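Assess this:
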Amino acid sequence: MPGLASALVWGAGQLINRQVGKAAFFFAFFAGTVLWEIVSGNYYAGMEFTPRSNGGFFVRGLWGLFTLGTQPREMTLTGLTEGDNSIVLMANGLIALLTLALLAIVWIWSVRDAARYRAALNGGGQTEASGAYFGRLWEGAFAYIALSPGLILLVFMSVLPVLFGILVAFTDYSRDNLPPKNLVGWVGLENFATIFTVPSWAATFGGILVWTLVWAVVATVTTYAAGLLIAVLLASKRVKFPRMWRSIYLLPWAVPAIVSALVFRSMFNGQFGPISQWLVDVGLTDERVYWFTDPTSPNLARGVALLVNLWLGFPFFMALVGGVLANIPDSYYEAARIDGAGPLQQFRYITVPIVQRTVTPLIILAFVHNFNNFGVIYFLTEGGPDNVDYRFAGSTDLLVTWLFKLTLDNRLYNIGAVMSLVIFVIVGSISVLNLNRTKAIREL
């Protein structure tokens, strides 16, 4: 009975259980929710009730989320008429839905608390005053209470944009159907079918996906291998002034990546860049090489992008591996030398396994970073050279740079939202599978 009462009116079950303080606490949420809805709506207007005209924050928000509006705006001599903005309605609806979800937690808490307390009393348990309950709650759940403001902020600052992007993928929101003049509508899986079944879109997606995977793997392997090699060399006792060398090799990491990418872009400029001119001057080429703009040689641009990424990325792994090497006991190598192991065997059977065990999770994170490495590709090649077989993309475009072009350059927001979901699924799946197979993660 108390549980059912709290399900109908929050706090009613606590009042039946003679816990007035708890009843007031839960009823305050209930009354605030109802009052908010009434004040923000037009429930007292003398007209036929409709969610669009009379609903408050929650009713009109949920109506807008499901319908995305019913009254389009029209252009007249005096400007646009009054109407619905589908994107605003979607955002407001998500806010209302997430707010209701948070309030639902309080509602479930109220129902369960009333039912459990009554069951405890029926089982011979002692009565508990509201003040004692809240004191016990403060001591036992202080961590959750302290984390709750951050959780609420996370819901509206992180979860809300993610859900908004997911919903856009199921609409016709694009440059051909832009609010506020037009209403956006739900189209189901039509955008996904476009990406995977329309030949031109499917060819673009497949080609960019393959290059993105190749880029992520090669970029990660090369930066890690180079960083490991340099860290091992700097750890050698034969190297003089290791701190100076280490500082020099950290310089590429200290310079902002965007600045470095723009500098390399100027150096490899096919028309004015010094590298193309130097190749001609020394006789290695008969004419200037157009690294980023030659559509017949897209691998030139891809190779340069990988080299630039190597330059920018190896210092991170060098510093990381150097820290690991400093913590490997010298007794390991002394025992190996006594057993007759040479430098290569020591590197293979001692250095690599210890380093690998420590840095594998970060290698996976580096793969994820390279998969979405927008800065190097966009500021170095801008996705070029052009590819006539691709839609709104070039030969060096990654999925993330293609997504950027689809949304900001071409305003295909629905297709861009589909691509963001695809990227999330691919990156998330690879990360989860690899992290679950990593000993360093399983032992945490």
